[in-house]
């Protein structure tokens, strides 16, 4: 039977299970967090106005960021616009990528000035569906700072087909 | 049932009964919103803005980002907790069906349970299109 791109992705992903990767999202800026909130359609000044006395960073901001400033270099992108390393095992393969869902638990509030580090581990690789089916990858991420420890824990699922 | 965006009554964890409704929250993220959201999150995946590419992936057109679905669910949970975004301690969802740019999305939900010891209220949440299609099914844990 011919080996498909999904087969290759599965093989590569299984070899990556348990490997810990770290990434910096750089320093959280109030203006960026407010821009995120506005882009998400929020209207509360607590989320959209950094000058408001009760301003807080939208809890979804940091966990939605795919990269920190200044973004990625050209060679870090796949032809489909995703980052080559965003979905483990898929770099260079002609596969379709979709988000499957997330579980987020906040253990602290992200504040302007926080330098956010992400620790990411692929924890699960499952073949689903009939026929060639698809891959369901599970990635566990923690977001935090050196000073304040973990602020959010995320379990994210990706579909590869 | 209260209408979208109306302020829910004051809450206290132990006062929320299982089955109580979460006030609905709605949004219709159009192409402009997707572009803005993709830019600030540095999400350049072409399924969110390139119609031809999206169709090549089997989609009807550009689709709403998973994180933007998450933001709408978060808004519904925060609104239930009197608009306090910090009251949402956990949020989870499964993407069940894509939502095209411009489609109206409505998040509804009910109280699943309350924990009198911690004050946490767990909500079951659902995000649907106007035709009834479930785009996301999830939950939130709030501490009002």
Structure description:
- The complex is a heterodimer of chains A (161) and B (144).
- With 161 residues, chain A is α+β, with helices and mostly antiparallel strands.
- Chain A has one domain: Hotdog Thioesterase (Thiol Ester Dehydrase, Chain A), CATH 3.10.129.
- Helices cover 20% and strands 35% of the residues of chain A.
- In chain A, strands 1-3-4-5-2 form a five-stranded antiparallel sheet.
- In chain A, a hairpin with a 3-residue loop joins strand 4 and strand 5.
- The two termini of chain A are 18 Å apart.
- With 144 residues, chain B is an alpha+beta fold.
- Chain B has a domain of 95 residues: Roll (Thiol Ester Dehydrase, Chain A).
- Chain B has three helices and five strands; from the N terminus they run E-H-H-H-E-E-E-E.
- Chain B has a five-stranded antiparallel sheet, covered by helices on one side.
- The interface between A and B is large, with 41 and 40 residues.
- Strand 2 of chain A pairs antiparallel with strand 2 of chain B.
């Amino acid at each position: 039977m011919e080996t498909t791109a999904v087969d290759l992705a599965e093989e590569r992903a299984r070899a990556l299970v348990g490997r810990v990767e770290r990434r910096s999202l750089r320093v959280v800026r109030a203006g960026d967090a407010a821009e995120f909130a506005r882009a998400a359609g929020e209207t509360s000044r607590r989320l959209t106005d950094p000058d408001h006395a009760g301003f807080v960073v939208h809890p979804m901001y940091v966990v939605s960021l795919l990269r920190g400033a200044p973004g990625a270099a050209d060679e870090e992108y796949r032809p489909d616009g995703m980052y080559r390393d965003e979905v483990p095992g898929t770099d260079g393969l002609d596969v379709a990528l979709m988000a499957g869902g997330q579980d987020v638990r906040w253990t602290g509030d992200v504040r302007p000035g926080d330098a956010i580090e992400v620790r990411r581990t692929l924890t699960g690789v499952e073949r689903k569906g009939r026929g060639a089916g698809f891959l369901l990858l599970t990635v566990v991420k923690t977001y935090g700072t050196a000073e304040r420890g973990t602020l959010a824990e995320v379990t994210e699922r990706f579909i590869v087909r | 049932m209260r209408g979208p965006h109306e302020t829910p009554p004051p809450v206290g964890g132990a006062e929320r009964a299982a089955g109580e409704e979460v006030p609905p929250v709605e949004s219709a993220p159009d192409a402009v919103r997707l572009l803005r959201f993709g830019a600030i999150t540095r999400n350049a995946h072409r399924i969110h803005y390139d119609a031809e590419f999206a169709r090549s992936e089997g989609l009807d057109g550009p689709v709403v980002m998973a994180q933007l679905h998450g933001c709408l669910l978060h808004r519904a949970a925060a609104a239930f907790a009197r608009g306090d975004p910090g009251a949402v301690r956990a949020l989870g969802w499964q993407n069940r069906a894509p939502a095209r740019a411009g489609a109206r999305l409505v998040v509804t939900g009910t109280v699943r349970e309350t924990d009198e010891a911690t004050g946490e209220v767990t909500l079951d949440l659902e995000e649907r299109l106007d035709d009834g299609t479930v785009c996301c099914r999830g939950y939130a844990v709030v501490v009002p």
